[in-house]
Amino acid sequence: NAKNNSFDRYNYYEPSMEQDTQRRLHLVRRLRADFANRKLQVWYQPQVELKTKKVVGVEALLRWPQSDGSFISPAEFIPLAEYSGLIVEIGSWVIEEACRQINAFDEIGLPQLRVAVNVSVPQFRKRDFPELVEKQIEQWGIDPTRIELEITESIVMEDPDLVADILRRLKQQGIQVAIDDFGVGFSSLSYLQKLPLDRIKIDKTFVNNSDEKSGKIIIETIVDMARRLGLKVLAEGIEEQSQLDYFLGLDCTEGQGFFFAKPMPADQLICLLQKQMSYS
Ligand code: C2E
Ligand code: MG
Ligand code: MG
Ligand code: MG
Prior knowledge:
The protein has 280 residues and is of the alpha/beta class.
């Protein structure tokens, strides 16, 4: 009967759910410890101007190395860091790292790149978030326009008016703002005219689909809309020459993806930038 069935189902699911919860709790504890022991790393993925393939910016991406040489994917540990609240501290450290790195780039005379940093909902919810960012920028004495914050539609949807206020304050300092993973959030488009944005990053699922008619329609609509709104567009996840060619044909000025470069540690990025300088 029905009662027995639901009882069976409950018995069946419970152990695996518990294992899952245990694994997550275990990961959060390890993440907290590894962060405290300075084991997390920030890697950088180039963002290029499509026409010239010149690196014009980089995206800072967290890496969590394991003792066996592997990495736990941010796709797995970022949600845990968000859920546990750890992301507030970790995210603040990523911004600090980005500022420090900009300073280091400048000291060796590298081109003045912009450094994009991902920001999570719990960070944005903190009242003192804008103040904190401003302080870090000031402490490192860097030009605020060199920093770009990448926010997602989920941040905007939480409280569009509050987000607009916070962004206006950040923009007053000169900090740049991009919408990340654009198009996957299913959120209302009306926020685009409310927010002081600089750039839209077309999500890689659309870029992946750019050889199909439906994918093209979506991409071209996004690019056209962005142009009319006066926003810049960056295509994420470019992996092939054909995708580069396609975006070159559109009014899309920048791209990021394995076709150009994968995320890499800062010292490798510095080598790449030095080579680029000696070509030009
Ligand atoms: P995201 O912000 O959209 O970052 C881009 C992701 O796409 C990165 O994955 C990057 O390695 C990957 N990617 C770039 N080009 C290609 C390509 O051509 N093909 C494919 N298949 N992938 C490409 P990653 O580093 O694994 O990060 C995943 C997500 O984790 C990020 O997505 C971001 O949402 C989050 N994340 C990473 N670092 C941070 C951080 O410091 N703070 C926060 N809040 N989130 C972060
Ligand atoms: Mg991002
Ligand atoms: Mg993205
Ligand atoms: Mg993302």
